[in-house]
Design goal:
Order of helices and strands: HEEEEEEEEEEHEE
Strand content: 35-45%
CATH architecture: Sandwich
Number of strands: 12
CATH superfamily: Carboxypeptidase-like, regulatory domain
Radius of gyration: 22 Å
CATH topology: Immunoglobulin-like
Number of helices: 2
Number of domains: 1
CATH class: Mainly Beta
Largest sheet: 4 strands, mixed
Length: 151
Amino acid sequence: MFLKKQILFVCLALLLQGCGGDQGDRRPTARTTVTVNYKGAPVEGATVQFVTVDDPKPSTGITDKSGQCSLSTYEANDGAIIGSNLIMISKTAVDERNVRPVRPEDADMVGVIPPPILKNLIPAKYALPATSGLQEEVKKGQNTFTFDLQD
């Protein structure tokens, strides 16, 4: 009985050491590059997020003029969390028709004036994991994904 308790204690200690090492709560990541196209053209300034079902920490990137980005999770360009990821892609801009300039005499209205309304520059369905229809498996090593978005 004493030996079983020692073995259990050693196993528990090793398990806790593995969980509480230098990485803390970090999950393994792999370098991930994404390209986003909409209607056949690269999308500049799109926000791309990968999120695993069992970890709320998103991996995020913003596309350049060629529609490409490298994802970051814990540090710049460290990639996406390894495993099955749901993908969200969005690009918005302020709808200029709903913006009015704030004048000095409006200072007491800050917080009362409604914020500007955003308009989607790509279909809004891609902004939510439940409606985007996008899912990818991130594996160890280099990962490259291309998303050709349509209406």
